[in-house]
Amino acid sequence: MTLLWIPLISLLGSIISSMTGKLTRNQSTGLTLLMPVIALLMTINLAPAVFAGDVIRETFTWIPLLGIDIAFRLDGLALLFVFMILVIGILVIFYARYYLSSNDSMPKLYAYLMLFMTAMLGIVISNNVIQLWFFWELTSISSFLLISYWWHKSEAREGAIMALTVTGAGGLALLAGLLLLGDIVGSYNLDVILASRDIIHAHAWYEVTLILILLGAFTKSAQFPFHFWLPHAMAAPTPVSAYLHSATMVKAGVFLLARFYPALAGTDIWFIIVSFTGLATLLFGAYVALFKHDLKGLLAYSTISHLGLITLLFGLDTKLAAVAAIFHIINHATFKASLFMATGIIDHETGTRDMRKLNGLWRFMPYTATLAMVAAASMAGVPLLNGFLSKEMFFAETLHQQLLGSMSWLIPILATIAGAFAVAYSARFIHDVFFNGDPIDLPKQPSEPPRYMRVPIEVLVALCLVVGVVPNFIVDDILTAASVAVLGGVVPEFKVALWHGFNLPLMMSAIAVSGGLLLYTQRRHLFKFHDSLPSLNAKKAFDKILFAVMKWSEGKINAIENGSLQRYITLMLLVVLLFASWPLFEMSHLGGEKQLTPIDVHNAMGAALLMIGAFSTVIWYHSRVISLLMLSVVGLMVSIAFTRFSAPDLALTQLTVEVVTVILLMLALFFLPQHSPRESSSMRVLRDIGISTGLGIVIASICYALVTRPLDSISEFFLANAKTGGGGTNVVNVILVDFRGFDTLGEICVLGIAALGIYKLLANLPLLIPDRDSEGRPWAKERYPMLLASISQSLLPLALLVSFYIFLRGHNLPGGGFIAGLVTAVAFILQYIAHGSNWIAERLTINYRKIIAAGIAIALFTGVGSWFFGRPFMTTWFEYFDIPLIGEIELASALIFDIGVYITVVGSTLMILASLGQLTADEPKGEVKI
Amino acid sequence: MELLYASCVGVLVSCGVFLILRSRTFPVVLGLTMFSYAVNLFLFSAGRLSLNKAAVLGYSSEYADPLPQALVLTAIVIGFAMTAFVVILAIRGQADLGNDHVDGQVPDINSDEINDNDKKGNV
Fold first, then answer.
1. Given B41, B64, B92, which is nearest A646 (Cβ)?
2. To probe the interface with B, which of A623, A626, A638 has the most B CB atoms within 10 Å?
3. Model's pTM, two decimal places?
């Protein structure tokens, strides 16, 4: 269970720290630090097993059919990253306590930082690549939030959007690559993927998969030409830059390279793409860094350059290169994070990061200056510091590759040049800021920062020194374990040591240092040269491309979506027409082999009436009342058709629904115009006639083809089991309340939801009650006719009795909850019509919402009830009882379910009609509110 | 009779679709109602047409197919709920927007054309 807890604790920390708004800053920091410290202790506890060569795994099955599990895996590489994320995270949180001004929200920053920590931890210990991708995206999102922390600054917002766009696009490519990878291997499990190197390499999709995954890695690790988002992300608070943009998030890309190294590396295409991208990034970053006047800009490009170095190492065809890459990941994280923090202090104490203003700070903050200088020296690769060791290894590896064939000697030379630039910009960082004359109009008088703000830098700089002097003492175990994970068990003999004797790499280092110092002293000429180059503004280009893409898609969307509902419906119907008619043309005979039944007079008359009704509805559609009356003729004929074709339940339902529908539409006409204007052009009408006739013909043909073919139905089962299994002889009702009871439960829920939706739609409706119709005739003053009032009152008990009877017999004869509910509803609606809502409200206070809820609850609990008898949901129970005088009767639990259906139908129907009717109850010409 | 039944379904579909394509809410509601009649009849016919067969056990040896009936029964009730919802939506639209056009506003691009048509007495 431990592995799951590591990201979980961190997530918990995010929630906890978001709630510390009312506490003091120290309490808030303390609470936030608690969780990563616990996670760190847990990791330390796991470390010995991993050093011993174990891989700790934990899997929780989630969606096995899709191959998606919640799976964790801790090997040497993951352990290294977990340590880095947690340790630097703890230091950064501590540092941020002193960095943030009192105006900045501390809980917000901490919550985002911890969320980001969760995401990073998730990436490195995932054992399922889809899960890995999920956390990958989470880092993009949390980094968006962190970069835009000072959301009131436009550069922060723009930087955040740019970072999200670039890394998000890379994330999509990564997803595609991982899906392909999963398809090739047949599993999303990382263990399986890492063990399937040969299958992956031999597969036809290998190149595509590789390029997609590399795109994900390169965008995240700011590799050339996707590097441009990183400098803009420096708008984030400096603790964020120290954490995300030097130590962790940008390392996620190189982590991905390391993680998939065993499965994907080893081919020419890998070496070519990875090494050249790395080389280009290394040189480009090192060159540009020298010319940045902003301290964070210098560090950003230096980070790009170092990430290029690591990428290049992964692209070199030697195993030792991969070891060197891992080593440099550690070293870069320590010295770069401390440099960012030092920059934060300088910014904090002087109010600027511009190196043209910052000079001679040594006198004001000697202690901080010393720390920053040590870290910068490590960045330059000065001996006795950790940066020197990995740079030496890098130089050594550049000598052992065959990338360019006979021109391979170019690589070490280019590497030395990049090294020289690294020395030059490090020298600038030291000399330009801490020496070189006096500060030029700083916004603040500089001084040493608060004592504890320096502690995180001290820790990191101490690490730089200790690793640099006695490397084996600290990093041997973790480096070996991580290398085992990356190289798949076979780790070459390597010795990290300060002194390898006088050899070529040492000479390269010497050249780089002296060359770098020379470059720095001659920087005025270089700056002049650089300024004469045409400036390439990545942000402008990015904005231009983004704008063009948005404009293009906007045009496309507008072309399709013009806001006209009629047009959408037309398009949809045309598609339906196309797809529904296609199979008809492929059929040889429309009619099936079934014997046709002869037409009798009654049916012919019924059909004629139905068609006349339908056509009349269309012809008189401008006069809405006539049209509605004609429609009710159609409805009536449909219910007669159901009677005719042996479906009494349907006939009863249709008939009652018909009544309710017509009442509803009549009510609606009170509020809507009585006439539809003539506004369709002749062409439009012709087109619509074409579409509707076409669809009618197609559907009629399908219907004919259907009914003339023999029936092969599963209904035999229902007929055979209705009596014995469900205890009823009305099979339709037994299907509704028993066999398919779960469906019915869903359906009454829909009914209830529709009724509630209508209730909300009518709430606070600003509606002017018309006192005359559209022709200007005033409505009748006599609103409730006496005759109807007196008859309806005496009809009510009778109607209720009928509905009760229909309900009770429903299990065995046509009837049941739906029909009885509708009959009851109609009986009540008659009262509303006859007396008006106010009259009813005085006599009957019913909350229909509660009725609907009660109905659904009864139905639901009948289903749940069967659990108490150890049966599955919705199992019915029935028994026959012999009661004296009445005779044998049957009681079934389905009956209770049907009561639920009944109550829901009554409640919903009445709520719909009564809510609408209520609107007409008040005096005309007033605004009504219900 | 199968032919007659299919024709009825076809006519209902045609009339329903034509009304659905109108520009005002009320005819669209009528069209939807009519279209749902057609759909219900169509689904019902999946059990084939059976004259004078029993719907309840014990009344005859031949039974009408109960499954489509059960499905259509709930479809009728839910169809009502949906019709009600749409018509109330139309009323709300009329109240909030001041017109009953399906797009929420009466387009004025073709106003000349409409006037011409009105003069000619076209639909």
1. B64
2. A638
3. 0.70
